[in-house]
Design a protein that fits this description.
Blueprint lengths: L1 E5 L4 H12 L3 E5 L12 H8 L3 E4 L6 H4 L3 H22 L3 E6 L22 H16 L3 E6 L2 E2 L6 H11 L14 E2 H9 L4
Parallel strand pairs: 1-2, 1-3, 3-4, 4-5, 6-7
Helix pairs in contact: 1-7, 2-4, 4-5
Length: 198
């Protein structure tokens, strides 16, 4: 099985690259400059060259705070880029797994969110990811949307790595308590997507 994963150096992509061969799957990361979500015309040719059996859209604009200053860029990548990937998947006749986020919710619920809960993004990043979900849903029927939260891995910058680093250098670590979440290990994401396909 050949899986095309959008993005080249992100945490989730790195997990797919590591996990895929162990599960007997060929993983083909594809990203800039060959596939640029800001340039939709690059998406289909880049994916078609791989001839995948399935596409995982892991690439995204993920700078939550910066998105407030660059709403057009966040929307172009997370909505327009997602639509281009979904269009390519439909044209190529392959299923799409689209990674989204818990930021599509406003965070006001005191219990864990469920898939059927009402979406209400509280910031530009969340709104752009919700627009991406809607674009994928409109573009192809053969899709699954996976909402992740607090993604962490051995690679890249993430909350868990930050806490471990602080714990090594300080006797006491104080953290603001305005958010609650459950960290999601990237390898669990990769295995959770790949194993059902086998």
């Amino acid at each position: 099985m050949r899986i095309a994963v959008t993005g080249k150096q992100r945490q989730v992509v790195s997990a797919f690259i590591e996990v895929g061969p162990k599960l007997g799957v060929e993983v083909f990361p594809v990203g800039r400059p060959e596939l640029d979500l800001l340039s939709p015309k690059t998406v289909q040719p880049a994916l078609a060259n791989i001839r995948p059996n399935i596409i995982v859209n892991a690439a995204a604009y993920t700078a939550v705070d910066q998105a407030e200053k660059e709403p057009e860029v966040a929307m172009a990548v997370n909505a327009g880029g997602a639509m281009a990937v979904a269009d390519a998947a439909r044209t190529l006749g392959v299923p799409l797994v689209h990674l989204s986020t818990d930021y599509v919710f406003d965070g006001s619920k005191s219990t864990p969110y469920l898939e059927q809960d009402r979406v209400a993004p509280g910031n530009v990043y969340g709104a752009s990811k919700l627009a991406g979900e809607e674009a994928v849903t409109a573009a192809t029927r053969d899709h699954v949307i996976v909402r992740t939260a607090w993604v962490y891995s051995l690679y890249g910058k993430n909350f868990v790595q930050t806490m471990l680093t602080l714990a090594q250098s300080r006797d006491e670590v104080s953290v603001v308590a305005d958010q609650y979440g459950r960290p999601t290990y990237t390898h669990d994401i990769a295995v959770g997507i790949v194993e059902p396909l086998l």
